[in-house]
Design brief:
Blueprint lengths: L4 E2 L7 E2 L2 H13 L7 E10 L9 E5 L7 E4 L5 E8 L4 E6 L6 E6 L6 E3 L2 E3 L7 E6 L3 H11 L6 E6 L4 H11 L5 E5 L1 H10 L5 E6 L12 E5 L4 H11 L5 E6 L1 H17 L3 E6 L6 H7 L7 E3 L9 H14 L2 E4 L2 H5 L4 E4 L1 H17 L5 H4 L8 E4 L1 H7 L5 H4 L6 E4 L6
Helix pairs in contact: 2-10, 7-8
């Protein structure tokens, strides 16, 4: 029989030359249905001082991966895993004796290309954390102070003031040190982290609206600026049972979703919300004045750095006093500056809470997916006794019977 013949039972043998078979096989592999698209990942594993780690176990898998690939590094710390599915989301885990396990996700390999990934493994319990903070907002520094108390040592802080390309390039250089986690304080910091990171866990805090700001990424989770509205309104109803109409101002570009949430919770508690959108920060005082004809009982100050400068806060404080309107604020420092009351985590706790979350993520005690968007449960109550007399307010019984973690603070308004 001719070489390459294909025998057939029950009759004449038919055959094809081997060269023809080769051409057919190549054609079949080239068709979209049967083509095999794969890429490769390789790199080196080092310790914290840049020395190669031999025998480290590298594992690649992922939610879209088919199978699990593993290999160990050689004496130079080198590893290579070939034949990975191209265009699928992959995760990398690196383990070595006496070292903290490293986990990164969000990788994709391209067809017939090699992705180079080097990592440094630190001793167990040692972490390097980067904090990105919007340096334009004073109370963000209070949040940073809270975070310092809950994050492990090895903290590096980078202040940002804009999202210009030069800022992005500087951030990329800083990220070249490959921190174990990133804390982003403020919306600008969170957006910069979103644009520059995909494989390092990011926890944000003091962000206006994580959903509208597109911060629901696989490697991102955190704490919004505003929340717990129903609890604050419940405290208001206990302090001033007559209060039914509340007002607020907001920037639709930042807080449309936040105002929807406030409206839903206000209406659920029997309140009417009167809101004024702000399209020009120079018209903040005008919009606040326009609320004077709405017969408001209280004004709800939503945290939004684009609106609430020091001057804007002073204006709304004076306006509230002239109109006999209860001023509800998100932090005790604002009560000390003349607002009526606050029942909220406060700036420092918002930072401390985010720091605790990031510490848990870096220690693999929690995952970004498990956390999502979450608001702290701790509440601090601060009240202005002068406003208590002016509005004949009552101490809210629920605050004194609150769960552990709630502090009571009675704050005197400074004399003018």
């Amino acid at each position: 029989m001719y070489p390459g013949a294909i025998p057939r039972r029950g009759g004449m043998s038919r055959f094809l030359p081997a060269a023809v078979l080769s051409v057919l096989a190549a054609a079949l592999l080239a068709t979209p249905a049967l083509a095999i698209h794969s890429g490769h990942i390789q790199g080196r594993i080092y310790d914290e001082n840049g020395r190669p780690i031999a025998g480290a176990l590298v594992t690649i898998t992922g939610p879209e991966a088919i199978g699990i690939w593993t290999c160990r590094t050689d004496e130079t710390g080198f590893y290579r895993i070939a034949g990975l599915d191209a265009s699928r989301m992959l995760s990398v885990r690196v383990e070595a004796e006496g070292r903290a396990t490293l986990f990164r996700n969000g990788y994709q390999v391209r067809d017939d290309e090699t992705l180079h990934l080097d990592y440094r493994l630190k001793p167990v319990g040692v972490y390097q954390t980067l904090v990105i903070i919007d340096g334009r907002v004073p109370y963000f520094r209070t949040a940073l102070a809270g975070a310092r108390g809950t994050l492990p040592s090895g903290l590096k802080v980078m202040q940002v003031r804009n999202g210009f390309p030069r800022t992005v390039r500087k951030l990329r250089r800083v990220l070249g040190t490959r921190p174990d986690g990133v804390l982003a304080i403020g919306s600008l910091a969170a957006r910069l982290a979103r644009e520059t990171l995909f494989d390092i866990p990011v926890v944000y805090t003091l962000v206006m609206d994580p959903v509208s700001e597109h911060l629901t990424r696989d490697n991102m989770c955190g704490v919004p600026s505003n929340g717990g509205f129903s609890e604050q309104l419940d405290v208001l109803s206990q302090m001033a049972p007559h209060a039914k109409r509340i007002g607020t101002i907001f920037d639709p570009a930042n807080a449309a979703g936040v105002v929807r949430q406030l409206r839903e919770e206000a209406e659920g508690g029997g309140f009417t919300l009167v809101s004024r959108p702000i399209h020009d920060v120079n018209r903040v005082s005008d919009e606040i004045r326009s609320l004077g004809d709405e017969h408001l009982d209280a004004f709800f100050l939503l945290l939004d750095p684009s609106i609430w400068s020091t001057d804007a806060f002073r204006f709304v404080r004076s306006w509230a006093q002239e109109q006999n309107v209860i001023l509800i604020v998100p932090d005790g420092s604002m009560v000390r500056a003349g607002a009526t009351f606050s029942y909220a985590p406060g700036f420092q706790e918002l930072g401390a809470y985010a720091g605790r979350l990031l510490s848990q993520v870096m220690a693999r005690e929690a995952s970004v997916a498990d956390i999502g968007v979450i608001y702290p449960t701790t509440r601090f109550f601060a009240v202005n006794p002068q406003d208590m007399d002016r509005f004949n307010l009552q101490m809210p019984p629920s605050v004194f019977g609150a769960a552990p973690g709630t502090d009571i603070e009675i704050t005197l308004t400074p004399s003018k």
